[in-house]
């Protein structure tokens, strides 16, 4: 498995290196002094900083490679889809930022790790590349620590061991910091009891709802005075944010004709090996670029007509069981199909897929196209450069800050927003490196924030005023229900008198969603403090007034609580520890100076 992963490292590093093809990337959108600073970062191989401390490109690629190998081992596959590769990259980036924030706190608290602690960690915590290696598995599937200890004693393992030791010297202080966070969490016996009650105390409830939307009769038309008062109170809800519209071009990072030919030659070589008697399933497992089916020897399972792309389906259904096809191409790449089982409109098939991928030379040429366009856009003008390079002018819709416009890759949201809202009409962006394309944008038009007039918002104001009047009618009915209950009538009697329905629940707990009741409102708070036979209301919500009766209350089981108390206490401490840590980390990230140079390409 590990040899297979290493054979495929070229694929992952090709994808990861997209942002680093010709030069390193940087975030700054300004000009002048920032340009020299970004060039120094590029020349030093720095792709980001956290509170001034650098993140180096070679370290980032090393960490992505580690994460990729671990993902392959956990999934038991030889390759990952391109979108998952990018997810691994982004998760690794955010993990590095988190670790640098933790390291700053470790230094502040002066947390250290002794040699004894380090040796113990090495012996008891194998690295993922070994932990998931089949060579270190016993027959029952458990990890073979005896074999692992033999590896640790082998002098040939010294270089790897030194690297693992260095990694742990950094990781263990972070773990100690996490332990400190969890140790500071306090969970009282009263907290445990209340948490258990929320999960196990049960209630059988009945309720009625006085819904303003169901009020009979019409309401008077809103007067001009009422509309003006409503507008003065609510106009802030309808304010229009600042909008911007961008022109942009994109250079798609797609394989060249030469790259397609390379993939064709590879699939033809596989076909020759099949003709010479090679095992189809083994070749699929070792060489197919379909990560899902490759792990199963190319097995696609049973598929029916209409479930495949037309060309794939036509060839698949033309084959007999045991036959495999000639190489052919679809939009996904080059294929060879083999049929295991064939019925009238159903087949069990295997396939080998070879995807054409842009080579280093292609990626470099595409980036050079983007660079050349960027330079000409500044010298000739944006639209003139588009015409000179044979590119297509594209436009976004008007969009507010925080939204990624259609046509722009989501990963570029922050960069595109910062550029669009902080630069003047006509200005041209740096080259943004997305996952699939390079983008160059120009600010086309800006639309200032404003509050619409009363006339523009008249339909909305009329709706609000009518809603308020309906709510007043609902309140009057709720008062009549209250009076009837005070006179000793039952919930059913007052509901019948007012034409309301009584809703029944099954046994519910405090964490149960009650059908028809808005979640996280005063209704739940009122319902779960009732004793059997008690009625409470009216309870106001945004959809009307509620009256709730507790029909039966089943207390929690004290014996079961005692048997589960310690386990629940540990769980609460774990949950609160995570909440405390997550809140702290979120605040630290907000306060940190995080600079990401990966996705903006400098043009000298």
UniProtKB/TrEMBL annotation:
Keyword entries, A-Z: Isomerase, Rotamase
Single GO molecular function: peptidyl-prolyl cis-trans isomerase activity
Residue ranges constituting the PpiC domain according to the UniProt record: 241-341
SUPFAM superfamilies: FKBP-like, Triger factor/SurA peptide-binding domain-like
Record-given protein name: PpiC domain-containing protein
């Amino acid at each position: 498995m590990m040899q297979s992963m290493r054979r495929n490292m070229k694929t992952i590093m090709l994808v990861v290196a997209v942002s680093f093809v010709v030069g390193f990337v940087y975030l700054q959108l300004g000009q002048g002094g920032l340009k020299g600073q970004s060039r120094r970062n590029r020349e030093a191989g720095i792709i980001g900083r956290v509170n001034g401390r650098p993140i180096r490109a070679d370290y980032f690629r090393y960490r992505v490679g580690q994460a990729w190998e671990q993902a392959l081992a956990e999934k038991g596959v030889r390759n990952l889809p391109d979108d998952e590769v990018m997810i691994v990259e982004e998760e690794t980036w955010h993990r590095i930022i988190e670790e640098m924030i933790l390291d700053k706190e470790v230094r502040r608290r002066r947390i250290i790790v002794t040699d004894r602690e380090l040796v113990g960690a090495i012996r008891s915590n194998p690295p993922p590349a070994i932990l998931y290696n089949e060579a270190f598995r016993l027959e029952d599937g458990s990890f073979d620590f005896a074999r692992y200890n033999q590896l640790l004693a082998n002098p040939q393992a010294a270089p790897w061991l030194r690297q693992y030791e260095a990694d742990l010297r950094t990781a263990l202080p972070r773990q100690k910091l996490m332990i400190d966070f969890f140790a500071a969490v306090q969970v009282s016996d009263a907290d445990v009891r209340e948490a258990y009650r929320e999960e196990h105390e049960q209630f059988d409830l009945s309720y009625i709802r006085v819904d303003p939307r169901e009020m009979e009769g019409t309401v008077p038309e809103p007067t001009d005075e009422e509309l003006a008062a409503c507008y003065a109170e609510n106009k802030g809800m309808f304010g229009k944010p600042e909008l911007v519209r961008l022109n942009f071009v994109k250079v798609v990072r797609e394989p060249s004709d030469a790259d397609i030919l390379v993939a064709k030659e590879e699939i033809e070589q596989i076909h020759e090996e099949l003709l010479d008697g090679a095992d189809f399933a083994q070749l699929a497992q070792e060489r197919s670029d379909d990560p899902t089916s490759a792990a199963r020897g190319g097995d696609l399972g049973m598929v029916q007509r209409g479930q495949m792309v037309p060309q794939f389906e036509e060839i698949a259904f033309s084959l007999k069981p045991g036959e495999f096809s000639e190489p052919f191409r679809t939009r996904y790449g080059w294929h060879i199909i083999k049929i295991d089982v064939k019925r009238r409109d159903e087949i069990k098939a295997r396939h080998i897929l070879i995807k054409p991928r842009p080579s280093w030379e292609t990626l470099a040429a595409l980036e050079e196209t983007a660079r050349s366009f960027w330079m000409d856009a500044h010298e000739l003008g944006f639209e003139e450069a588009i015409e000179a390079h044979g590119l297509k002018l594209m436009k976004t819709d008007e969009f507010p800050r925080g939204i990624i416009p259609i046509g722009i890759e989501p990963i570029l949201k922050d960069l595109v927003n910062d550029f669009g809202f902080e630069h003047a009409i006509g200005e041209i962006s740096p080259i943004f490196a997305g996952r699939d394309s390079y983008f160059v944008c120009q600010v086309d038009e800006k639309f200032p924030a404003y509050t619409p007039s009363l006339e523009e918002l008249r339909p909305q104001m009329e709706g609000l005023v009518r809603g308020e009047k309906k709510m007043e009618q609902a309140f009057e009915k709720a008062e009549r229900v209250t009076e009837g209950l005070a006179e000793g009538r039952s919930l059913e009697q007052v509901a019948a008198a007012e034409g309301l329905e009584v809703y029944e629940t099954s046994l519910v707990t405090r964490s149960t969603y009650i059908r028809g009741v808005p979640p996280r409102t005063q209704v739940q708070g009122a319902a779960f403090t009732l004793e059997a036979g008690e009625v409470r209301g009216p309870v106001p919500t945004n959809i009307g007034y509620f009256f709730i009766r507790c029909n039966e209350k089943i207390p929690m089981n004290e014996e079961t609580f005692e048997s589960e108390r310690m386990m629940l206490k540990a769980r609460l401490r774990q949950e609160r520890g995570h909440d405390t840590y997550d809140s702290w980390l979120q605040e630290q990230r907000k306060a940190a100076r995080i600079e990401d140079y990966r996705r903006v390409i400098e043009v000298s």
